[in-house]
Design goal:
Blueprint: H1 3-6, E1 28-32, E2 38-42, E3 45-49, H2 58-63, H3 70-74, E4 82-84, H4 90-93, H5 96-103, E5 106-109, H6 111-119, E6 127-129, E7 136-138, E8 141-147, E9 183-189, E10 192-197, E11 214-218, H7 228-236, E12 240-244, H8 265-274, E13 280-281, E14 289-291
């Protein structure tokens, strides 16, 4: 199929999915929850990355004011010790304040993300500024953030640019969740290290010497970043890669998954396979689990 036609496809064949029984009790496991959202579990400690479960419709995003949806979030977020956020667009940060307040969880992120939480009334002692490279301990995990950048996929620009410089009150317009400072998220566990690439770009100089056994890799917007897939594998040298942020995040999580038009998940998988150091790839279905240890 011509590449241009393939990029218009939204259907995802079921045979692409990695199906595995629920693995929350494994020594180290993770669950994908749509968009760039993951739950990582080790020794009973639950870390959430860029959770986005409210899933507002396109009409709500374009024309309305949006806020966290407690009933949607609570269906999936049962246990939370900490949340890490890579940047502050609504589809990465909108649900974090509700989760933090409901579960008493700590939030690790840039000042932009912390201002999202302050506007929602999260206690200041729950907010941790994720200074690039500085380690923080959460249960069996060492957490770090590394400076990164957002894919400039919107006609050569980053959507909703700028910073969130004051507490953000909700409901708000989708574009009030400005991108803010962008961070790659690194979790080091005795059994495996994990790196979360929440937007399809990176700054290799900021992660020189950083390695990850598992990379959680955004795919939408990669066409706007030169040699993105190759550079991620070269820089982090993973043994396992899990694609994310390919799904239509304005559809309910219970609906059959469809990829964002122009994403081309199969093209991304081809790029990974062609790499001389090609890692294993697992495409998880929404709410799908996978073990990261024996």
């Amino acid at each position: 199929m011509f590449d241009g036609l393939r990029r218009l496809r939204t259907h995802v064949a079921d045979e692409l999915f990695h199906h595995e029984s629920p693995a929350a009790d494994a020594p180290l496991a993770l669950q994908w929850l749509g968009t760039a959202g993951f739950r990582v579990v080790g020794a009973g400690h639950h870390i959430w990355l860029d959770p986005h479960l409210s899933r507002h419709s396109l009409a709500e995003v374009a024309f309305g004011r949006i806020a966290p949806r407690p009933e949607a979030i609570a269906r999936d977020v049962d246990i939370c010790h900490a949340v890490m956020v890579g940047h502050s667009h609504f589809d990465h940060a909108i649900d974090t304040p509700w989760i933090a307040r409901e579960h008493g969880a700590r939030v690790y992120g840039a000042e932009d993300t912390l201002n999202c939480c302050r506007g929602f009334g999260v206690d200041e002692d729950q907010l941790v500024l994720l200074e690039p490279g500085r380690p923080f301990t959460e249960g069996p995990f060492a957490l770090r953030g590394y400076r990164s950048q957002h894919s400039a996929f919107a006609f050569g620009r980053v959507p909703a640019p700028g910073r969130i410089e004051a507490p953000l009150q909700t409901p708000a317009r989708a574009w009030d969740w400005r991108v803010g400072e962008v961070l790659g998220l690194h979790l080091d566990h005795p059994l495996a290290s994990i790196y979360h690439v929440g937007s399809a770009d990176l700054i290799e100089a900021e992660i020189e010497g950083v390695r990850a056994d598992v990379v959680l890799c955004c795919t939408i917007g990669r066409h706007a970043t030169e040699r993105f897939t190759e550079r991620v594998i070269d820089a982090l040298q993973p043994r396992l890669l899990i694609p994310c942020h390919w799904d239509q995040f304005w559809r309910p999580l219970d609906a059959p998954p469809r990829q964002i038009p122009s994403n081309d998940l199969e093209g991304f998988l081809d790029e990974v396979r062609r790499h001389p150091r090609a890692p294993e790839v697992r495409v998880l279905p929404p709410r799908g689990w996978t073990r990261l240890s024996a």
